[in-house]
Each structure stands twice: as structure tokens, then as C-alpha cells.
Amino acid sequence: MASDYILGTRDAELQRLRFQHELWRPQAEAAWSRAGLRRGMRVLDLGAGPGFAACELAQRVGSSGRVLALERSPRYVEAGRDEAERLKLPQLELRQHNLLNDPWPEERFDLAWCRWLAMFLSNLEPLLEGLDQCIAPGGQVLFHEYVHWDTFGLHPHGSAIERFGAACQRSFRETGGDPDVNRRLPSLLAARGWRIEALQPLPVLGAQGSMAAQWMERFVRVYGEQLQQLGIWSEADHGQALQEIAQAAHDPGSFWVGPTVMELRATRLQP
Q1: Which residues of 202-229 are buried (b: 16+ CB within 10 A; e: fewer)?
Q2: Using CA atoms, how far apart are residues 27 and 159, in angstroms rounded to an integer?
Q3: I need a surface site. Which of 41, 53, 99, 243 has the fewest CB within 10 A?
Q4: What are the tens digits of pLDDT across the range 198-210?
């Protein structure tokens, strides 16, 4: 593939991720508070993307803390570094890193934050081993990953959108990922001696014009083009999906439901 990610790293995707961060920021901040995030803590951000969440984390831990953000895409690392410099966050380091192949940091952290990363990994073992290595006993890992992708849809008239959701899941699986990976992660962590602290569904839905609706509309537009390049979504399919979006704009009762995210928080016990 020409890009670092199946979702691409083009300008349109970068802007979509910025909007996505704004939509999900309250959920992330609430999760960090539930995990006890405070000033002076050391945080590992896995699959940091353009660094939007990493910058928020760095502001939360303050100058006495540290955030190390690991990201595979060089373009996203550069974007995150520019943002960290603009915000004057010397406590934030963004590092290009492939979680499946590169050695993990020789550091210990109090908290690891991982959102929409595990679902794209063809092998979860390096991620789990890295967490065992990098999280100090008593430290926590916080996952926001999908648990039920089939909830994605536009109602009441979204048959093409439903097919789009199926094509998305197919694309994730064909590259070795698992769109419902959070069905497996709690058991895998528990088997390695982690204590499961919280399992909390984080549904997202919204009527026309809401941020949630705009987020899902943008995803259809941006990723629909990517799916066409992958050969699993046709131009005709894409046109039908856009037509349904346009139709929904004239129906004040129409609404979107996103794939269901689950918050998973676990504590690393003494080895």
C-alpha cells in the first residue's frame, strides 16, 4: 500500500482525525480521570496518530510528568511534533515506532493509553508483551477499542451505509485486523496476570447536524474513496451511500449510530 495505514494519511484523513479527536475528547478526558491521571505521571500513548490526544495528556501531566507517544507514520509524527512545539510541551516526546517490529522503550510508565490501535494489529502478542515490559506494577492500561462494529448505521434509510459498514469490516480483517478486538482483550490481559478494573460501553449516536453525525458522514466520504482503491467498494456503491446521506439531511428524524466502543482498564499486578 502507498500509505502507512489502511485509512490513509492524506490531508482529508488528517482533518477527519482532528474532528474525531474533538468529538471523542470528553470521553477520553473522563476515562483519564477514572484512571487517576494527574500531574507528574508518566504516560505511554500507543498509536498516537497526529498527536492530538498526546498533547492533551501532556497538558494533564504537566512539566513534571512525561508523555511518550509512539506512532508508525512519519507524517503523523512530524505533525505531532509541530503541535507539541506550538503548545510548548517539552514533556511530550513523539517517536516513530512500529509496535510489531521495533524494540519497546526501556522505560517504565504509570499509564498506557491505546485507542483504535489494537483493532489494526495482525498480531496482538507484541502489544501485550510491550505492555508487560513498560508498565510498572500497579500501573494501568486504558483501551478504547471497538467491541461491536455491526451497530454502525444510518437510520431509517441506510441500506448502502449498512453495506459500507460491512465493507469496512472486511477491509480491516483482510489486512489482519479485528474490528471487534475488544471482545478478546480482557481475557488476554487477565491470562497475563492483569486485573480487569473496568469494562464500559461508549456508544455514539446523533441526529442530523450533530458532531456524531458529521463524524460518521466524513468517515463514509473519506474512507469510501480508500475502499474503492482497495477494490471492495464500487463507485456506484459510494454514490448510493452519498445519496442516502443527502436524503437523510431532509429527514429531521434520521440519525446515525456508530460502532460501539468499549473502555477497558486493567492494572498490572506484581509479576
Answers
A1: bebbbebeeebbebbbbbbebbbbbbee
A2: 29
A3: 243
A4: 999 999 999 999 9
Cα dihedral across residues 240, 226, 233, 124: positive or negative: negative
Grid coordinates in use for 38? Answer: 494527574
Q: CA neighbours within 13 Å on the CB side: how many for 174?
A: 11
Q: Is 242 helix (H, G, I), strand (E, B) or coil?
A: helix
pLDDT tens sequence across 24-48: 999 999 999 999 999 999 999 999 9
CATH number of the domain that residue 126 is part of: 3.40.50.150
Amino acid 1: pLDDT: 33
Length of the chain: 271
175 is in which domain, residue-wise?
Answer: 11-268
The order of strands in the sheet holding 205-207 is 153-155, 255-257, 205-207
